[in-house]
Design goal:
Number of strands: 17
Strand content: 15-25%
CATH class: Alpha Beta
Radius of gyration: 18 Å
CATH architecture: Alpha-Beta Barrel
Structural class: alpha/beta
Distance between the termini: 18 Å
Bound molecules: zinc ion
CATH topology: TIM Barrel
Number of helices: 9
Number of domains: 1
Order of helices and strands: EEEHEHHEHEHEEEEEEEHHEEEHEH
Oligomer: single chain
Largest sheet: 6 strands, parallel
Helix content: 25-40%
Length: 288
């Protein structure tokens, strides 16, 4: 038997974490995102919830034995690197790029799109920061706010990235599949999924509504069960287990609930027969 037999049917799942400034919000006309301020309208940038949530999520992943993909925003990463050994912390996980200051590439939220040279410079800087902190070569990208366009996909391909994971794509209702595709040359798009919940309403594999109290872990287990072939990309933010848009900073009991919900999503996907891989591994399996 050969060691690398590719199964005909693949039911893969990846857990991805966007590590960026706390509860980030686009700032109209500005390149840099700010953090939601819970006591007034000040423009501020914070990283403490992102740092705390990152540690908690890595601990949880250790307990459940899952290797994940972390999309790290450059400025946030430099901040984290000053207060923790982030290289050691993420040594068992994939690290990938998520911009430098949470740029809105397309201008969809800020009204100020980046020019081609600005996108190119942002990608280079983002990758350089990761190389510097982790001494590894990132091959993946997720656009801040998931705002991606074809200019950026071409640049990613030209710069030697393997995949992007910014697009949301509906699970095919004909054959219950969600597959990566070639977005520019050999660059793969490994999309976030949308499907239907038990009541027939749209649900996205980004766990945002669960952290905001609007979805239950079983909704995502149902979503995982509905994928019969391909790769399901689950996504969240590092800060979202300790701070939410609606409630602000969570107390210890709420944080425990948040982490236990996340654990149920991950274990639920595995109990539904899906195999956890990093996005880099999924890209390699697909290219093969
Ligand atoms: Zn982000």
């Amino acid at each position: 038997m050969g060691p690398a037999t590719i199964p005909v049917m693949m039911r893969l799942v990846a857990f991805t974490v966007d590590v960026d400034r706390d509860v980030n919000l686009p700032t109209p006309g500005k390149r840099q995102a700010c953090s939601k301020c819970h006591d007034g309208d000040r423009e501020e940038v914070r990283f403490s919830s992102s740092a705390r949530g990152l540690r908690l999520i890595v601990d949880l992943l250790e307990e459940v034995g899952i290797e994940a993909t972390f999309f790290l925003e450059g400025d946030t990463l430099l901040h984290l690197a000053r207060e923790m050994d982030v290289r050691e912390l993420l040594s068992r996980h994939e690290v990938a790029c998520h911009g430098v200051c949470h740029e809105d590439i397309t201008g969809g939220s800020t009204g100020a799109p980046l020019t081609g040279p600005e996108i190119s410079e942002m990608l280079d800087r983002s990758r350089d920061i990761l190389r510097q902190v982790f001494a590894r070569d990132p091959v993946g990208f997720r656009a801040p706010y998931q705002h991606i366009d074809q200019r950026t996909l071409f640049l990613l391909q030209k710069k030697g990235f393997s995949y992007d994971s910014s697009v949301t794509r509906a699970i095919d209702e004909e054959d219950d599949s969600i597959r990566p595709w070639k977005a520019a040359g050999d660059l793969l798009e490994i999309p976030v999924a949308s499907g239907r919940d038990q009541a027939g309403r749209r649900i996205v594999s980004y766990l945002w509504p669960m952290h905001e109290g609007k979805r239950m872990p079983d909704d995502y287990r149902h979503l995982a069960a509905s994928v019969h072939e391909g790769a399901l990309v689950l996504a969240t933010h590092s800060w979202h287990v300790v701070e939410t848009y609606n409630r602000g900073l969570l107390g210890d009991t709420s944080i425990e609930v948040s982490l236990s919900n996340l654990r149920r999503v991950l274990e639920g996907a595995r109990e539904e027969g899906m195999e956890f891989l990093t996005l880099k591994e999924i890209a390699e399996a697909w290219q093969a």
